[in-house]
């Protein structure tokens, strides 16, 4: 029987998978942080550069401040960031010195554990990122083996990558990452021992989404084949297109005789808090999924799935969701079967959306797709369809992108901004619209407290006070009276 540890993904991947990365702000995280710290998680999957961009753009909150406050509130639980090569928030490739500054600032502000993931499994790029993170002071670096299904991605392919990862001095651990929930228990019984054998004594972790209901079953098989850490989510942030439910996984592992040392009471409190938050904010709860064989074809990860649905809803075309998902399979095949992990799901799904709602396929393409075809993200596993390549590269914009100069180092980029700004502000301004960062700064420090149980009342009071002619509000019950009149009601 095995000793298992858990990593909680609720704040980053669970939020991204089920709530489009917009469902949790700083006070909502800080309110439950001390309880999370007592659970006994090995680490928290806390952020990514995309997650940081959402913080600025959607919540007008400083992500660096969130790091510091969370580190203060959770001193015993390492905070993890996941990154995909040489990019930060923007899709454009960043200069190596720029990325070094990113990692320096992350470590300085409280991130200590890093997942390095190259979507093309370019190990040279992955090892260079790991080297920079170690130089910045990162204490634990995990290399990602991104799982997919194809004729190329067999057990020997992943074992070969794992063997090379195990030899790199800056890699501490490896995890098998299944962002689309494609791993079956049968495949787990062959790929996990093959990878573990290649790793030797290096620890192996498993991260699998519940998109078609298979991840919980894979987790039950994983300890038998050397997996030491399982990644889970809490309460309404589990299941669905997110990861397995922490409480259920703990109970099932113990039932099978395995040991999981977590504080059950604290874990229940975390799940209950997120449940109350979801109810207060009208956010959906993840539910166990039925098996859907179509996912084995299109392989769209949970976060991208919910984001695509939201984008269609915003333009009144949610009824075209199924057509877009069908088109994803065609686009992915034409682009050489990229693994559906950031940034490729976003590139493929966006193109599929354009193809469905536009007048002709590939009539409109993004700069990111052009860069993909030009090889900016690495060499595709299979060749891009020649006709599609011609359509993409024949347009004037493709010629402009091909002629773009290489990324500028930080010293050159800084000339565009006030010389007195901090490194952290500079990094945000270098990759985001100025008005987004200006709005974040104008909003001031993030609030520190949030109570989901008062949200309904506060919403009601806000709606009442906004009605014309309403001046006085009185709430009464036994032994309680709240009176809001004229000028003081705005401070309720």
Task: Give an account of the 3D structure.
The chain is globular, with a radius of gyration of 23 Å. Residues 488-492 have low confidence and may be disordered. The protein starts with a strand and ends in a 7-residue tail after the last strand. The chain has helices at 10-19, 26-39, 49-59, 63-73, 96-108, 123-136, 155-167, 185-199, 215-221, 246-255, 264-280, 295-298, 302-314, 321-334, 344-357, 367-374, 386-393, 396-402, 410-413, 423-431, 434-443, 455-465; strands at 3-8, 43-48, 79-83, 113-116, 140-146, 173-178, 204-208, 227-232, 259-260, 472-477, 480-485. Helix content is 48%, strand content 12%. α14 (321-334) packs across α15. It has an 8-stranded parallel beta barrel, surrounded by 7 helices. By secondary structure, it is α/β, with parallel strands linked by helices. The longest helix is centred in the middle third of the chain and has 17 residues, at 264-280. It has 3 domains: 3-280, Aldolase class I (TIM Barrel, Alpha-Beta Barrel); 295-402, Cyclin A, domain 1 (Orthogonal Bundle), CATH 1.10.472; 455-491, no CATH class.
Integer average pLDDT: 92
Estimated structural class: alpha/beta
Q: What is the top-level CATH class of the largest domain?
A: Alpha Beta
Largest sheet: 8 strands, parallel, barrel
Q: Please, how many domains?
A: 3
CATH architecture of the largest domain: Alpha-Beta Barrel
Give the strand tally: 11
Estimate the strand proportion: 5-15%
Flag low-confidence runs: 488-492
Relevant CATH superfamily of the largest domain: Aldolase class I
**Cα shape:** globular
